[in-house]
Design brief:
four-stranded mixed β-sheet; 96 residues; 44% helix
Length: 96
């Protein structure tokens, strides 16, 4: 589990979240189970489920826990969020 705070590379996100009183936490356990292979036909799909099983993929959801003041997500998703906020901040600075 990694906590983003001031001083990390995620300064834009950190400053935004700290300003609003939230901490951004990335957790590798934020995953979803999906079928490893899928087929259009229901009958074949059931067989493929038995044969190939399920796999874990990073959850694209970001969880906001208001009681603790946390924003929780998978590290990949949190990094994308950081990049997006930095891009928005740079665009805002260019227009100012």
């Amino acid at each position: 589990m990694q906590i983003y705070e001031e001083g990390h590379t995620a300064n834009a996100l950190c400053n935004f979240l700290i300003w609003h009183g939230y901490k951004a936490i990335s957790d590798k356990n934020c995953v979803e189970q999906v079928q490893a292979r899928r087929h259009k036909k229901r009958r074949i799909n059931k067989k493929w489920l038995k044969r190939y099983g399920m796999k874990y993929v990073p959850s694209r959801k970001i969880y906001v826990i208001h009681s603790n003041g946390w924003i929780l997500g998978h590290p990949i998703v949190m990094d994308k969020l950081i990049e997006k906020i930095k891009a928005e901040e740079e665009a805002y600075d260019r227009h100012s």
